[in-house]
Amino acid sequence: MNYSSTAANAFRFNPIHLNRTYGVTYTFETAGVLQTISYEITVCCIRKQPGPQFLFEINKGQVYINDQAPEKMIDKLAESCGRVLYPLQITVNDAGQFIAVANQEQIAAAWEAAKPKITQYYTGNVTDDIVEYMDLAVSSPAHIYQSLCRDWFMSLYFSNVYQGSDIIERPITAALPVMPYTAPVSFAVTQKPVQHHTDSGCLILQQKGYCNDPRSVEDLLQEKDLPLSQHMEGVHTPLKGNMDMVYKLYHHDYSINAIIGHCHMESGPGLEKKISFSVYHLREKDKAPAPTMQVVMPDTPSETNEKKKSFFSSLFKRG
Length: 319
Description:
Helix content is about 20%, strand content about 35%.
């Protein structure tokens, strides 16, 4: 179905005056083990730049693991390292896509200031690996951009949802950071409007598709950004996966009310991975007026009594 936009309210990325707080939740399930990560994040459009482009500032709050502040040493270490990235300033194009980090030098300086205390308090091989990773990640605009492309919020919020001037069904490519330490996995996706006027005053766009990444299972397990396993090892096990999500956009300016969805990947025998995610607007915490519309809150992920392992320990695990 084709919902044509009027010139006065064209379907386009228009973040001027945006200053909004979101609640973010991810649930990761691997081999039957569940891990839930949640936090609040503030997204502010500072100004419009030539291009046309926009300068954003992002601030991230306390990270909770299974509804608790990090308790394990590895989780505390990872949180301390991640804290130096904020406030994060980024450049976003007129399609709503994150294209560059604007304050890399300030972040690198913050890391250098924080590193002595971190390395004094935390010791061991894992600490050495994480510090080495951070050294590289903040070393240049290109490296920090690449690192942040592997962040779930950045991938979901600053995606290519804004395509063209009309609200129509169209094919797009989505890139999701399913595996750490490697480039996001690509999906061939169909984006289409499934509801134009909801009780919450939102346009709902569905994105649904399958994995079309040219890399193999072997490439991902070896953290390769390119499809090399066939050439190097003579082995190429195709990746299998799918994703399904919805974007709820306010009619007022087509800004994001909520993002809700899930992704499923098979990265080898017994290595099935499921990720569900929700990003929802916390209107009561806004610092600037927002559209006067009810927010539809996504369901809270179900709890589990199964043994849960550290999220950050798996994130920084190698080999």
